[in-house]
Write a structure and sequence with these properties.
The complex is a heterodimer. By secondary structure, chain A is mostly beta strands. Chain A is built from no helices and 11 strands. Chain B has no helices and 12 strands. The chains are: A mainly beta, B mainly beta. At the A-B interface, strand 4, strand 5 and strand 10 of A face strand 5, strand 6, strand 10 and strand 11 of B.
């Protein structure tokens, strides 16, 4: 069974540009989460989808971030326009059922904004 | 709000040494506690978990006991190997309206030399 995959693995962009990160969860997993780790700090929750619906987006830092999960399969996280403080590693995780603690994480996308 | 504090790294040990990585938490409600591990170039993997007070989680020789009285979940291993070199994250999860999100510590890098 394939794990959670993320693309790209690394992205380097200039301040003001747009970047779109993609996450493919494990097939059949209804829950999809986005997290972010800024250098040297905690991994912080961004948002949670149940199928295609946003269940909780309380962790999204501001309106420059837009997450979608059309059709309840893969998800994208767009940052527009990117700022220097957006640099970090963005993790995606999925879990197979409602109220299940065990989340399966992808390898992350390292975003560098210069 | 909920928070997790874990010891700063890196922790540098020789092979077969005893490992302790301290983790304490603050949470409302009744959290479950986790240790995740990130090996170089890979995603986060669940190492072990404990869902209630006095539970002991164990996996691959690692152990941690959920101590409610000291709000701690310290990770231990009796004899580390070079292959244990990784970043270890302590985390807690609290149910919120039927689902959970994870709150992580900053991570502790472990370096094991032969």
């Amino acid at each position: 069974e394939a794990g959670v995959t993320q693309f790209p693995s690394h992205s380097v962009i200039e301040k003001g540009q747009t970047v779109t990160l993609r996450c493919d969860p494990i097939s059949g997993h209804d829950n999809l989460y986005w997290y972010r780790r800024v250098m040297g700090k905690e991994i912080k929750f961004l948002l949670h989808f149940v199928k295609e619906s946003k269940q909780d987006e309380s962790g999204m830092p501001n309106n420059r971030f837009l997450a979608e999960r059309t059709g309840g399969t893969y998800s994208t996280l767009k940052v527009q326009p990117a700022e220097l403080e957006d640099s970090g590693v963005y993790f995606c995780a999925s879990s197979p059922k409602w109220a299940d603690y065990e989340q399966y994480f992808g390898p992350g996308t390292r975003l560098t904004v210069t | 709000g909920d928070s997790v504090t874990q010891m700063e790294g890196p922790v540098t040990l020789s092979e077969e040494a005893f490992l302790t990585i301290n983790c304490t938490y603050t949470a409302t409600g009744y959290p479950s506690l986790f240790w995740y591990v990130q090996y170089p170039g890979e995603g986060l993997q669940l190492l072990l978990k404990a869902t209630k007070a006095d539970d002991k989680g164990s996996n691959k020789g690692f152990e941690a006991t959920y101590r409610k009285e000291t709000t701690s979940f310290h990770l231990e291993k009796g004899s580390v190997q070079v292959s244990d070199s990784a970043v270890y994250f302590c985390a807690l999860g609290v149910m919120n309206s039927g689902y959970s999100t994870l709150t992580f510590g900053k991570g502790t890098m472990l370096l094991v030399s032969p």
